[in-house]
Amino acid sequence: MAxxxxxxxxxxxxxxxxxxxxxxxxxxxxxxxxxxxxxYIIAGVALCWSLFQLYIASPLPFTLSRVTGLSLTLNAAEAxxxxxxxxxxxxxxxxxxxxxxxxxxxxxxxxxxxxxxAACALYIFWFYRELSQRPGLPIRADIVAASLGLVLLLEATxxxxxxxxxxxxxxxxxxxxxxxxxxxxxxxxxxxxTLARAMSTMWLTSEGVFxxxxxxxxxxxFLFVLFGSMLDRAGxxxxxxxxxxxxxxxxxxxxxxxxxxxxxxxGLISGSSIANVVTTGTFTIxxxxxxxxxxxxxxxxxxxxxxxxxxxxxxxGAAAFLMVxxxxxxxxxxxKHAFLPAVISYIxxxxxxxxxxxxxxxxxxPKAVLYTRRQALMRQGxxxxxxxxxxxxxxxxxxxxxMLVPAISAPVLILSLLAVYVALIWYAARSPDLExxxxxxxxxxxxxxxxxxxxxxxxxxPLFVLVWFLMIERRSPGLSAFYAVLLLMVIIITQKPLxxxxxGLQSREWRDATIEGFSDLIVxxxxxxxxxxxxxxxxxxxxVIVGTxxxxxxxxxxxxxxxxxxxxxxxxxxILTAVISxxxxxxxxxxxxxxxxxxxxxxxxxxxxLANGLxxxxxxxxxxxxxxxxxADVTPPVGLASFAxxxxxxxxxxxxxLTAFFYSLRTVLLPFIFIFNTDLLLIGxxxxxxxxxxxxxxxxxxxxxxxxxxxxxxxxxxxxxAALLLVTLMLLQPGLFLDRVQAPxxxxxxxxxxxxxxxxxxxxxxxxxxxxxxxxxxxxxLSRTLPFELGxxxxxxxxxxxxxVGMDVMVEGDDILVDEPLDPNTPVARALRNYDFYGDxxxxxxxxxxxxxxxxxxxxxxxxxxxxxLVAFLQLRRSRAARESAVAS
Length: 889
Fold this sequence. Notes:
single chain; mainly alpha; 5 domains; six-stranded antiparallel sheet; disordered N terminus; DctM; TRAP_DctM-Dct_fused
């Protein structure tokens, strides 16, 4: 057994519970918590912020407006203005200016800055009508308010998130004003902007600070953060941790496996990596050390699993909600595309932890109840079957009520839900409430799964409501979260009084439980608002970067610059994007990182992918950026989640971060895979196809985990690890090997363009090789291969070409000439931007390529499984020989 000393091998002391809470406060809710009137003001404003967000998310404004005849609804600009005013006011009160600044009181300067910042944010709300009547023509008061507001926003962001995001924003602002300076390279120069124009874009319109990012923070993110905060306050966090240990704690490396499962379940309700690490890690990390994990490895497992909580639907990290606006798809589609990679990533991490435990022969914690293998499998099967039956029964009951009594279905379903809730509380009241065990105690008793489940089944009801409205009713994320939070408020207020009632406690105890329930509700609303301060500041400050891209056109310059650096090689482009995300991630939170990189690089990847003959869905590119953005909390030297884990474990933070990054290699690999194989994102895939993709992708990631760990059934030799990496690639991307054997496309004469297009099946790819003179150098000929996915058949070839390709062409004999695209914002126009359409020779289609008939790519699964079988056979033989040798000795 490992020592229980809270010091690691490095001699670094683990932090106390109080110090850990200070760490979370400093990063998530604000380190300042003054007593007296100032504390009540912070709490009161935070409470008002939560109530305001619930008000604008609910149908109440429309109902009150209809009943009273007054205009009690807010448009998007007004709501964003009030949202940011709350965030800036609380940022100056809750976050001290410097480390040496007082935490038990608020200096007068911070009060003045808070009021000034809130007033500048509310300027949009107060003068919305006047501003809308003078678009782009700001008066002096507008410019003063915008300039002060921008400065105060950047200072609030520095306090809440540190200097990196502020530095990036200031660099972009400097480019706005000094973009025409002679000392800048010619490639990135632009004419520059006046103060009036810059402030109009950044503060007075929806193109900068009050743009899409802050809008998503206002509409979606706040409610989901509030949902997670309140669910944790209700006791769900402890429930998930206990359940994870009850299910997996007895296995080899059980505490680490339980940490992964607990973090995954906590990730269902929390988008904060740091809070996830501290919530689950406080209990899991000491237990991992107890069974043989070093302090750094224990912290790394917690970091790898906690950070992945941001990619786990339905409540993903705040950046995921931005995809709804940036990609232009419903949130349910984001969930659909993100679900499979997230689940596969967690399964692979569980296996990686298992290999780490087996490789080091770690001991197992004693199981609370012993079952034979047959009994255990039977119980697991019954559990899964019961879940499926209950889910099916709930679905058909709700649908049945909606069909049979549509006029009164809402009150019937609400009453049914409350009846189920009361029944579950009665069931939970028969068992004692869960208490968080002391992980440093000499003896650890694992909980029993059935006993844990009965105490917290009612916590699943808000998740059920959230998923139902998101996925079945297809309501907006904001409204879905509102209904889930509404149910949570009922649960928090009533669960303790109802338990007291069912347990037959005295009236005084029942009264105390009722007061405690209302207190929990108030605290949950306050914490939810305080958790949002940093996110709101981040989305607002990142709006400066977005506004700069819009105002200056730097995005187009970035495309040319990245294409120049990569030499047009698409894989190098992806690697550059990943590196940029990781570098920015060293200082920026995930949300800001995603906004910056997606604004600059996502269009570049799509455009240059098109230029390389690849049709890449926009959601795949944004998820690629998002996945590398979440590594912001892992990557040393500024990975906050790694530092939090090291603070819990007492290990070295840099070593913890490096080990966590190694454990997260599967998360690094997945984005590259789904860029080239969008089946992993369930794009255009049915149910049967999804099951098959899940099986093969999971198998591939388990093989990858074995390759990177250097262990499967025995310690791997170097060639065996290389062979397993090759097997992984064959399973995930067999088409890559088939392309080396058979060409994926066959060439057709341009004269047959319309005939070929008309004959191709739906969803097939047609590639056009377009050649023409360079606009800057007419003597140089450019050549691009552009792919196009064809829609349904039914039209003649020419009509289908116009519909699906959208390129203006003209037939002259055997030549197909290309006209300049009318819309410069289309992918085709951006891909052909350097062509001279008015020169001589003309721009023309030189080759038409259609998909070739060839053998299925899955043929390469055969050598993959043969190679895997060879490695497995050799390792099993070595493992058996080692065991026999150990027995003999």
